[in-house]
Write a structure and sequence with these properties.
The complex is a heterodimer of chains A (240) and B (325). Helix content of chain A is 38%, strand content 25%. Chain A is α/β, with parallel strands linked by helices and 240 residues long. Chain A has a 6-stranded mixed β-sheet with strand order 6-7-8-3-9-10, with helices on both faces. A 4-stranded antiparallel β-sheet of chain A has the order 2-1-4-5, with helices on one face. The chains are: A alpha/beta (240), B mainly alpha (325). The complex binds adenosine-5'-triphosphate and magnesium ion.
Amino acid sequence: MGILTLNKVTKNFGGLTAVNKVSFTVEEGEILGLIGPNGSGKTTIFNLINHYYPVTSGEIIFKGINITHKQTHEIAMLGIGRTFQVVKPLKRLSVEDNIMAAAFARETTFAGARKVAREVLEFTHLDHVANMKAGALPIAGRKRLEIAKALATRPSLLLLDETAAGLNPSELDEAIDIIKAIRSELGITIIIVEHIMKVIMNISDRIHAIAFGTTITEGKPEEVAKNPTVIEAYLGTDYH
Amino acid sequence: MENKKFFSKGELIIIFTGLVLPLLFYFSPYAQGLLIFIMMWVVLGTSWNLLAGYTGQVSFGHAAYFGVGAYTAALPFLHYKISPWWGLIAGGIMAVVIGYLLGVVVFRLRGPYFALGTLASAEILRIAFGEEEWLTNGHNGILYITTWVTKIPYYYIIFAIAVASIVSVKLLMRRREGYYFLSIREDEDAAMALGINTKKYKNISMIVSSFWAGVAGAFYFIYMGFIDSETVFALHNISIITILVGIIGGVGTIWGPAVGAIIMVLLQELFRSAIFGLAPQWVSGMHAFVFGLLVIFVILYLPGGVVGDWELIKKKLHLKSNTEK
Ligand SMILES: Nc1ncnc2c1ncn2[C@@H]1O[C@H](COP(=O)(O)OP(=O)(O)OP(=O)(O)O)[C@@H](O)[C@H]1O
Ligand SMILES: [Mg+2]
């Protein structure tokens, strides 16, 4: 019994089936990589887990609770944090205030929220830009702020959607270290979506691969990397 | 948002000035009248600013709560001779009830649709209160012989209400509620992912906002001694002016509405009196036009309003005085 289970989850947008009977389980403490070509439905799966969109069919179980029809904020309070591929900073607030707003999920006082925010700022190496307006951050900072906000809500499961996209090599290494520390130091389970193979192969314990909204395989990174269908799915899009 | 002393020195000076101001104009009931209106608009502007400026729910219908507050003071007096003074509390509460009910509908809308929804709510109330003569005396309005002839006590009452409204917003904005209001304003989807029950917090913002607008409405009846539905539910003279007070002073700033209220009341007075009788009468009719220009100017050049862009204004003035030397 894992921390999160998707059971034949399907999402139709009009005539388009973006996610088609996808099932997987994430074990507590694990890092699960979710891969697939552009438009294969990865972000949509996240949007279904935290109920930005209602599922068309199937069910989602988190810590034994059926969250399929729970509201987004309730799911966050149950302990699922997420980042957005298209980042959503609270632009006119400072970086620290962004994180404080998130910290109030578990803290009731100003002092308590600020203490959490300071810890998270340090953990995500954002302390030197704490007073900057979030809208003024460069892209690497914005991606990191996504992680910081999600962490400040004290999740037990974290959904990372391409938080390494658009980073230069040194920023990338820093990001990988932070993600690893989230699991090892904070004990948070992670589902990570990433196109950069270096990141996903390096970080994930297991990988779930999809194409056109359908599962193609699941297994250890080295197995998945050798899977002919996976190779074809990726080459197929690359050659277009 | 630092957790320093509640009021800074500058803020205490402003409040103190507010306390002594009517004494400076002790022999001018005319000036006192203007001061009273300024304070009333501080309350309305502060109310609007909480919902629109801090929570991002731009209301075009604050007259709804103002009018309901005014009628809550007036109707028990009209029918049962109950003192309108009770309205200062009851008007606020009744406005909250109406605000909450309207919220059920308008909070389903976002952005411009929300604005239109609030505008329509106030218009519906204006028409309804005008038509239901058995209840409201219709277009004849409701008349009340005011308690005092002198204006000073009214000033201190509305001044206290204005300070209380500012304190309430200040208190909220350094708590979880404030952070959640701002999160909703910045990005509602992001806010939900942070565990924020956006519906609930929009309602909290609406409750506090409509309360103060209702209190201002009740005060208006007590002070003026007359209301009808065209006056207190007015789109131009209440809802729109409320927005102007908020925008010109500075959206999402604590003292913006106070600055906006001073500017708007004085401007309105300039036009009403056709620049104190110095200009031809038709100038009075130009006020809507000039307010429109003013809004365009502020949005283009001072999007943060006078308070929000104060640093910018200081810089510009400074540059000018330097080049003139
Ligand atoms: N709100 C929506 N309405 C209609 N179609 C949508 C919506 N959201 C996603 N889709 C479609 O669903 C499919 C899956 O999109 P999704 O964003 O989940 O892909 P993805 O795997 O995250 O891609 P990428 O790697 O480019 O981020 C796409 O065809 C997309 O156009
Ligand atoms: Mg995506």
